[in-house]
Every structure is written in structure tokens, then in C-alpha cells.
Amino acid sequence: MSTTAHAPTASEYIVHHLTHLSTKSQSSIIDLSVVNIDTLFWSLSMGSLVCYLTWRAARQATAGVPGRFQAGVEMLAEMVNDQAKAIIHSAESRQFVAPLAMTVFLWITFMNSLDFLPVDLPGKILALTGLERFIPSHRIVPTADLNGTIGMSSGVLLLMLYYNVKIKSLGGFIHELFCAPFGAKIWLFPFNLLLNLIEFAAKTVSLGMRLFGNMYAGELLFMLIALLGATATWWGFGMQLIAGSAWAIFHILIVLLQAFIFMMLTLVYVGQAHEGH
After folding, report:
1. 210 classed as catalytic
2. Which residues pair with 36 in a beta bridge?
3. Of 48, 169, 206, 245, which residue is the catalytic one?
4. Is 206 among the residues known to form the active site?
């Protein structure tokens, strides 16, 4: 008896496009025992591209009239440096944090921009190249993966802890954990410590969740718009074109805004590490 493949339903289509290429079956939206290979691949790819472009801009920099590429990089660097000066008052810390903030902004912008690629493009490429049997599922937007965004926010947490210890010394940081903000009375130590631990955890989780939530919602909306074309009618194709174009234009703002917010909060959190309660 011969069987014919049926077209996937709307739910099957979305579930397939939301499934990662992972080291094992993933049962929850965040699982620290699972490595999402596609998230790692595209994160490293976009990070390498950002490093190459900034290296190229630095290598080709001239003292004369800059080209458009150099002028764009210089404008971005000046904007980030001005923000860093307003938030972090240590010139020594800014030598590291300002370039890091610019790298974070560009890196997240590039990763977010992958969402503009057609949702079915990765699958089509895999099918044409014969790799579909080895790569049954693939997600192309790293920032729509909570594992990735929480990993990035955890990096910011490590920076906060590092600068707290560097600026205040280990003893001073521990003293602040137990004595701020309610006072240095011994019976207040547990409440101070608990509040400070909650603050660090809330900053880390909210930073990662904010970026993930916006990009996940944007990715899902692109998939729902793509389903309009499945109706195989002129109305469906027309609405897909109109809705897809409108959402893509609006999504440009989301892509840049989320990268800017992540960069600014990184600067703010590191700046707070330089200050005492």
C-alpha cells in the first residue's frame, strides 16, 4: 500500500519551526542539560562577523575624510562612548566596558536581524543540499532561544560581580551584601543578603527574558503570517505580502531597540557595581 505525504497542519508547521537542532530531545523551553547546536552556530557566526567588520573598520581607518563604512562605525563608537561616560565614571573601566558594550550592541543586532530571513528558507536550503536527513530541525534566530539570552545575561552578571569585587575589594563587597541597604545590625544581615541576592537574580533573569520574549514573539508572528500563504488563494498571498512587509518594517525598530536596551542595561548594571549603597 502506498502512502502519500500530507501537508502539515498549522500547529505542526509552527512546532517544526520552533524545534531546535539539539544534542537530545528537549522537553522544556529552557534546559541546561541540552545544547542547542543551531543557537551556538549562529551566535558564533554573527559574533565572528561583528569582530571581522570592526577589525576591518579599525584597519582601514584614516585621518582624512572617512568613507561611509568608517563614518558609520565611528558614529556608533562615539554614541556608545558617550553613554558609557555618562554611566561609568571610571576611565579605566570604560576602556574595557565601552568597546564591550558596542560589541554587544552589534552582536545582538546581527543575531536579531536573522529574523528577517524567510522562515522557510533554512528548510529549503537543507532540502536542496540533501542535509535535511541529518538536520531535521533548525532555528536560525539565536536570541529567540531562552538558553542563549540567559547565557548572555549570565555573562553580564559575571561582569557585575567582577567589578563589585574590583572596585570595592572582596571584603567591601561582602560587607555590602550583608549590610546594605537596611544597615549593619547583625539581625538585619539575613534580610540584606536575601534582598541583594534577589536583586542580582532579577537583573539577570529580566535581562535575558526581555530580549528572548520580544524576539520569540516576533519570530512566531512571522510564522503566523507565513501560514496565510498556505490558503493557496489570492487573498491569502495578498495578505501575506501586506502583513509580512508591514511587520518586517516594524520589526526593524524592535531589532535595534532590543539591542540598544540590552547594551544600555549592561552599562547601567556595570555602573551600579562601581557605586555603593
Report:
1. yes
2. 22
3. 206
4. yes
